[in-house]
């Protein structure tokens, strides 16, 4: 774990510098056409208030990465199917109908809710160290086993429904800085912060494994957020505000509109 963090820290310096000068780029690797965005709150833009009133409980932000990227690439028509709280089953039953042979680009961020995001965050913010460890260890095991299998099947089905599309899977960042900074109204202990990171690393590994098996592109999001997690000195992820419970440990406006969007743009331009 220590070696992984050292490698990520070194690479993050270059990524952060690039983000600071980021500008919209042309989508060189994808045929212009229909862009379908699938996924949960990390795709809908929860944490980047205010939300589009028309999106209701799905809490789609104008600053989400799908909407920001689409504004920068007007040759694409966005079908934003993302929704806060979405699980793999929700993507299958409520979102994938938007896919067709006309779809040329698909992005998806999902799996965090299946992996128990709310339960682990609650346990690590309000529970004992033992309760947090139990919740995150269970989630980490699930992420590397059943979740990876379920995601691989989902990505395979997305490819079948949109055979002419490029499919990109954007992952999740590490949520909490492991230092001693305040998270706001509640701050997890040092041990619990490490457990949250432990779970995030296993979740990333499970998603990457699934993407590899299904033949789709995985976009790593731990690296660009490194050093900018919640509770740190310069967070791109929201801390704990009781008045905004659904936004806790979700990217803020900069995290969504700049960091996620930049990584999506950079990955598309590699295609």
UniProtKB/TrEMBL annotation:
It comes from the Bacteria. The keyword Signal applies. Residues 37-258 form the SGNH hydrolase-type esterase domain. InterPro entries: SEST-like (IPR037460), SGNH_hydro (IPR013830), SGNH_hydro_sf (IPR036514). Keywords: Signal. Residues 1-27 form the signal peptide. This is Lysophospholipase L1-like esterase. It comes from Catenuloplanes nepalensis.
């Amino acid at each position: 774990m220590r070696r992984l963090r050292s490698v990520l820290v070194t690479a993050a310096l270059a990524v952060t510098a690039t983000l600071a000068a980021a500008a919209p780029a042309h989508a060189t690797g994808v045929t212009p056409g229909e862009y379908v965005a699938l996924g949960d709150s990390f795709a809908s833009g929860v944490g980047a208030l205010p939300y589009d009133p028309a999106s209701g409980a799905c809490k789609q932000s104008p600053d989400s990465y799908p909407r920001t990227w689409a504004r920068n690439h007007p040759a694409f028509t966005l079908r934003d199917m993302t929704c806060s709280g979405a699980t793999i089953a929700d993507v299958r039953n409520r979102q994938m109908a938007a896919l067709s042979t006309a779809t040329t680009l698909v992005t998806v961020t999902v799996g965090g809710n299946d992996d128990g995001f709310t339960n682990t965050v609650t346990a690590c913010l309000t529970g004992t160290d033992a309760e947090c460890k139990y919740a995150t260890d269970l989630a980490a095991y699930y992420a590397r086993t059943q979740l990876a299998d379920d995601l691989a099947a989902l990505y395979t089905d997305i490819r079948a429904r949109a055979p002419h599309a490029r499919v990109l899977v954007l992952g999740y960042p590490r949520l909490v800085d492991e230092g001693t900074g305040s998270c706001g109204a509640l701050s997890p202990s040092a041990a619990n912060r490490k457990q949250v990171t432990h779970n995030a690393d296993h979740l990333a590994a499970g998603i990457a494994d699934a993407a590899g098996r299904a033949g789709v592109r995985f976009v790593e999001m731990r690296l660009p957020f490194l050093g900018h997690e919640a509770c740190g000195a310069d967070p791109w992820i929201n801390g704990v505000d009781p008045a905004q419970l659904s936004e806790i440990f979700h990217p803020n406006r900069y995290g969504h509109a700049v960091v996620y969007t930049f990584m999506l743009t950079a990955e598309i331009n590699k295609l």
